[in-house]
Amino acid sequence: MDVLGDVLGVIGLKATAASVLTLTTDYEEERTASESVAYILLDGKCVIEFQGGTSLLPGDALLLGDTKHFVHRVNPESNDGKPVRLIQCVFRLERTLPHPLPKYFPARLNLEARYLTDETELGRTVDLLDGELINSLPGINYAGLRLAEIIFVEMLRRCSLERTQPRFLAGLTDSSILRTLLVMHREPAKSWQVAELAREAGLSRSAFSSRFHNLVGEPPLTYLRYWRLLKARLLLQEEAISVWEAARIAGYQSSSGFSRAFSRLFGGTPSTILKAKPNSPGHKTLKK
């Protein structure tokens, strides 16, 4: 079980663009969609202005959380007459979903060059993506976007090396809290109680509840309830299942109770999700 991968699937992380910027003058753009943008400086020096300025040296990386309605600029500095080269990757994810990862996503994550030159996947993936973009071989769009998504995940992993980690990601680096996240994700339909989860964590009930809330961003049972419904929503979108089957997987005893909880959280019924699926056959909402 991979908790982070599970969550990224539910919130719909997708890379939508990957390119190399070769700059000798200022570069400016304003995005109207809720997108995250990563910059990785390959050659030269620059300042990226986005809610303040961030200076980058070769090998430095910067992930901007949500660029919607913000103008951000890349200002290349002197490079002995040579252009400044950066990789730019653009990502989309469903930010309005009730999960602490998008809720507490950092506005700006700055990684120094040591994170790209160490023996981790981040530096190697950047090199692979740079090569793909330079060589432009058949399949570049598919391969390039997959490599960009690996870069996104690796940048989140590097958060574990920072003193200040955003909520939820902080929970993944705490062994006690991670154990409870693993069992909730593995068995979401189980009627978990706080006392049981505290035993999994090896903590007292009060210590566990406080620690979970502080590190994850939601009380344990609130997180579980949201996760069940988020997982059911994804299954309804992607799998050929009925509302009753989604309800059972989410731990509900009736499709009516599931539909009410689903509507309160997402503002629409499960049947609406089924009807919105392109080219999907008719689905029956079964009642127990």
TrEMBL record:
It holds the Pfam family HTH_18. Transmembrane segments: none annotated. This is HTH araC/xylS-type domain-containing protein. Coiled coil: none annotated. InterPro entries: AraC_lig (IPR032783), AraC_XylS_family_regulators (IPR050204), Homeodomain-like_sf (IPR009057), HTH_AraC (IPR018060), HTH_AraC-typ_CS (IPR018062). Residues 178-276 form the HTH araC/xylS-type domain. GO terms for molecular function: DNA-binding transcription factor activity; sequence-specific DNA binding. The keyword Heme does not apply. PROSITE patterns: HTH_ARAC_FAMILY_1, HTH_ARAC_FAMILY_2. Keywords: DNA-binding, Transcription, Transcription regulation.
